[in-house]
Amino acid sequence: MHCIAIYGASGFGREIMPLMRQQYAGEGVSFVYIDDEMANGQNILTFDAFVARPEPQKSCILAIANSTIREKLEARCLAAGVAIIGVKGSNVIVLDNVEIGEGAILCGFVHLTSDIRVGRQFHANLYAYVAHDCVIGDFVTFAPGAKCNGNVHIDDHAYIGTGAILKQGTPDKPLRIGRGAVIGMGAVVTKDVPAGETWIGNPARPLRRD
């Protein structure tokens, strides 16, 4: 018997549950949520309660928006011998020569074209896309409708907001989004974004915190 847990019982976790049921339909898999703050002893368990369940096979998918917490929970699962899995909506399109790391969540209508490298624990929400010759690091998050055009490099823990557009780079000078950078909702990014900065607007510019 196989038990799969969605780590996170908030809105995003509840969106992932039907994708998991669809992906594992007919395989006799049971599903629960893990949420240490919302645990109710029924279908929302603490992590320790999940690990203590009797099923010999246990897996977990991390439906946690905060990428730093996602990284910590990945380590927690692996230390406890819990496998990390991903999920892909039935209408997701993945074309040629695309490598996707462990634990990816690809929601409905996500499109990855060709010659793409994606790190582990990637979240791509509804209608997000990644075009050709892109390199995406670990723990990167794409909010709904995020648009990443060709020849873009995105470093670990970056967040691309809803409807944001990343301009296409070139093979010799890809557009780069630095580690931990945040691209705001609807922003249009036309040049490199340094690590740790938040950029907003069209064309995107650094957020001033006066």
From TrEMBL:
Any one Gene Ontology MF annotation carried by this entry is:
acyltransferase activity
What are the residue boundaries of the PglD N-terminal domain, all occurrences included? 4-73
Q: Where is the active site?
A: 132 (proton acceptor)
Q: What Pfam families does this protein's entry cite?
A: PglD_N
Enumerate the UniProt keywords alphabetically.
Acyltransferase, Transferase
Instruction: Write down the position(s) of the site called Increases basicity of active site His.
Output: 133
Q: Which SUPFAM superfamilies would you find in this protein's record?
A: Trimeric LpxA-like enzymes (SSF51161)
What the entry lists under InterPro entries is as follows: AcTrfase_PglD-like, PglD_N, Trans_hexapeptide_repeat, Trimer_LpxA-like_sf
Q: Which CDD domains match?
A: LbH_AT_putative (cd03360)
Please state which protein family the record places this protein in: Belongs to the transferase hexapeptide repeat family.
Name of the featured protein = Sugar O-acyltransferase (Sialic acid O-acetyltransferase NeuD family)
